[in-house]
Design a protein that fits this description.
A hairpin with a 3-residue loop joins strand 1 and strand 2. Helix 11 crosses helix 13 and helix 16 packs across helix 17. By secondary structure, the protein is mostly helical.
């Protein structure tokens, strides 16, 4: 791929820099918030070399690139002002849309910049846990202490990272947001968690843990943005630069401790208990839903909207049950495209299926497989959903969970080792891989004629997979 040509073509296709309110990228997509989507030439964007397809969902204009999306994003930053600093938050003049679209846009903008660091350190945590499980390293050594710190620190101090990205999204002062987040995880305050009789100027409050928390910092930074606008407008110019952060911190931190924190802890605890209840009483249903529908969420670019659920579950329970079935969903689509690779006689199709298979199994990046092969061919995608649902249900029945935040992939499997019934994990993963692979190889699919490749799927025909099989 010529990254510079792809970047230029995409930017021109979306209506130019002047039509872009904000831009971020996730694992495989450029996520634009456009001022006027009618000015975008979707056909031209799809025709740009290096572009897999376009999806318009969640209030975003999503250009699917694949594994090379960071390079294309960087090139866009070179030819425009849509660089890293300006791309972490949505501009206030962006189209508001409905509440759901606004929520997805907010979550994507706040979490996307931290996901790679969160996933990378989570993977290190998984490898460390596996090393302890297999007695390759013991927990009483300084080596373990160092590795545990470097792999565990980021998710523990997640509120600090989110304070920066939330401030950019809500257009608040980043350093004031950082001061607020620092107070939430300050060691002295952390030592008060669970202690009775706490008061602030006579107002009783309960100190909850803000380690790995999500809701409190996002809510308070949102309120901070309004408070700063008011204070900047009302305070004299000679003092407003230092009086504004002083007043904001003085009001915001106690507000979190007394009101926002306990309420969010109650809500998060309820959500964690709700997830636990589902996986305790009908684990097969929860696993089947996550394993079967995850890739449907991927189609519409809505899967990142579930990231807060993962972090909330981890904060309240110290583990994540939701992630286990997602491994089945990811590996099932990788297995389906592997079946295409084995069965296909079309040379162009086989050449597309090979790298898509490796990307899916190793890195968990399934969008090249979904958009380029499985979804256009219909049956492989449907077989992948079936395998993901069956495998996810089996994994959930085994009570398999992870103690670290990871992006599901073959490389991240150590995150599941030793957590739950390992036999059920092996059976679930086996089902998730073998069912779509064998169905694709045995039942088959309608191949493109001669050396043509299947037409990439798009947002307009994504729902075709819900139709009866050909």
């Amino acid at each position: 791929m010529d990254y510079s040509k792809t970047a230029a073509g995409v930017l021109q296709g979306v209506g130019g820099e002047e039509n872009v309110s904000s831009l971020v990228h996730c694992a495989t997509r450029l996520r634009f918030v456009l001022k006027d989507e009618s000015k975008a030439d979707t056909a031209a964007v799809k025709a740009t070399p290096g572009v897999v397809t376009v999806a318009q969902a969640g209030g975003q204009y999503q250009v699917v690139i694949g594994n090379d999306v960071p390079d294309v994003f960087a090139e866009i930053g070179k030819i425009s002002k849509l660089g890293a600093a300006s791309s972490d938050g949505a501009a206030n003049d962006a189209p508001k849309g409905n509440l759901f679209n606004r929520f997805i846009s907010m979550i994507s903008s706040i979490f996307t910049p931290v996901l790679w660091a969160l996933a990378g350190t989570g993977l290190l945590k998984a490898f460390l846990a596996a090393a302890v499980t297999f007695n390759w390293i013991t927990t009483d050594t300084t080596t373990y202490a160092v590795l545990n710190a470097l792999s565990d620190a980021f998710i523990n101090f997640l509120p600090i990272a989110l304070s920066i990205t939330a401030a950019r999204y809500f257009k608040a002062n980043e350093w004031t947001s950082l001061a607020i987040a620092g107070a939430l995880v300050y060691p002295t305050m952390a030592g008060l968690v669970g202690q009775p009789g706490l008061t602030f100027f006579g107002i009783p409050f309960t100190m909850v843990s803000y380690v790995s928390s999500v809701i409190p910092i996002i809510v308070i930074v949102w309120l901070q943005s309004y408070a700063e606008k008011f204070l900047y407008a009302k305070l004299p110019g000679a003092v407003k630069r230092f009086m504004t952060p002083m007043i904001v911190v003085l009001l915001a931190v106690p507000l979190v401790f007394v009101v926002i924190g306990p309420i969010s802890d109650l809500l998060g605890g309820g959500l964690g208990k709700g997830i636990g209840w589902v996986f305790d009483n009908a684990p097969w249903a929860g696993g089947a839903i996550m394993g079967g529908l995850w890739q449907v969420f991927v189609i519409f670019g809505l899967h990142w909207g579930l990231v807060p659920l993962f972090t909330l579950e981890f904060q309240t329970t110290g583990q994540i049950l939701l992630v286990g079935p997602v491994f089945a969903a990811v590996l099932a689509q990788a297995a389906a495209v592997a079946g295409v690779w084995v069965r296909a006689r079309n040379k162009n199709l086989k050449s597309l299926a090979a790298p898509a298979t490796l990307s899916g199994f190793l890195a968990g990046i399934t969008e090249p497989a979904i958009y380029g092969i499985n979804l256009p061919l219909k049956r492989p995608f449907a077989f992948g959903i079936v395998g993901g649902a069956l495998g996810g249900a089996t994994i959930a029945l085994g009570g398999v969970f992870t103690k670290s935040f990871v992006l599901p992939s073959g490389l991240a499997l150590p995150a599941l080792f030793g957590n739950g019934n390992m036999l059920m994990l092996v059976i679930g993963l086996g089902v998730a891989i073998l069912v779509p692979f064998l169905l694709t190889v045995i039942v088959g699919f309608v191949e493109p004629t001669e050396d043509a490749a299947p037409a990439p799927a798009s947002a307009e025909n994504d729902l075709v997979v819900l139709s009866p099989l050909d």
